[in-house]
Specification:
two-stranded antiparallel ribbon, 9-stranded mixed beta sheet, Rossmann fold
Length: 271
């Protein structure tokens, strides 16, 4: 059975919903406080997928995900390695990582995304929304048809909720933007209801460069996104479910956020 490790603690607060998503997909999940990983109670290498859920790690007191990412990079584990070194080994074994919202912020801070140069050097950042306020709304996200990751297989357009104050992805220069595009590392972009990518507010809730809502690394093993697929596991989570149902447009499972978890679990079961 596919095994999914979900990190919690220090203000992370979406771990239960994430666990439900994996359970629905037929995987076994374990929610572990990060301290239990550091002291060796929980071993990363026993799992197939590592997850960094949404929330407010360390209250976002410095920058979203910054303190948590520093603990991952520099705090020594009981075995003498850093968790970042364990992650490097984990990826080299062909395993997968998912980061959602605050978890995406951590992956960017760690240099795991987009990781153009393969050395875990941070190349992008997530900054305050252009609106200057916390955005809590549903958005449409367009899947890049050329993206190479099992998380997004056969997907095109999804409705998902966003809940963030610092979701604006900023890419440090035009050369890096070009490389991200060339390597097809854009996973998701904010779009209108027809699937046309847009920078118009509030369809793009934060003003992200290239209207990016999610990224992958070059191997497709690491996937991070600002919207919350774990908050849309059922048609009845959708804010317009009653109107959609009345008009005969009820959404199927493959049109909800659950499909992302179904995809990765099915991929790992086959491989």
């Amino acid at each position: 059975m596919v095994k999914s490790l979900i990190i919690t603690g220090f203000g992370i607060n979406c771990e239960v919903e994430l666990g439900a998503a994996y359970q629905n997909a037929g995987a076994q999940y374990h929610i572990a406080h990060f301290n239990d990983v550091l002291d060796g109670t929980v071993q990363l290498q026993d799992f197939d997928i590592l997850n960094f859920p949404g929330g407010f790690s360390f209250g976002d007191d410095i920058a979203s995900g910054k303190v948590m990412s520093n603990k991952i990079k520099f705090k020594k584990m009981q075995n003498g390695f850093t968790f970042m070194e364990e992650i490097d080994r984990f990826l080299k074994e062909g395993k997968f990582i998912l980061g959602i919202c605050n978890g995406f912020q951590m992956l960017v801070q760690l240099g795991l995304l987009p990781d153009i140069h393969g050395d875990f050097t941070p190349e992008t950042s997530l900054e305050k929304n252009n609106s200057g306020k916390y955005e809590d709304r549903w958005v449409h996200v367009k899947v890049n048809p050329k993206v190479q990751t099992p998380f997004l297989k056969n997907l095109d357009l999804l409705d998902l909720p966003v809940r963030h104050g610092e979701g604006k992805l900023v890419i440090k220069d035009k050369d890096l933007q070009k490389l991200i595009i060339e390597h097809e590392l854009i996973a998701l972009q904010y779009a209108d209801v027809e699937g046309q990518v847009t920078g118009q507010y509030p369809l793009n809730p934060n003003g992200a460069d290239l209207n990016i809502a999610g990224l992958v690394n070059k191997t497709g093993q690491v996937f991070g996104l600002m919207p919350h697929p774990e908050a849309f596991l059922s048609f009845y989570n959708h804010p317009n479910w009653s109107a959609l149902k009345a008009n005969g447009k009820a959404l199927e499972r493959h049109q909800t956020g659950q499909v992302i978890f179904d995809n990765i679990v099915q991929f790992l079961e086959r491989n």
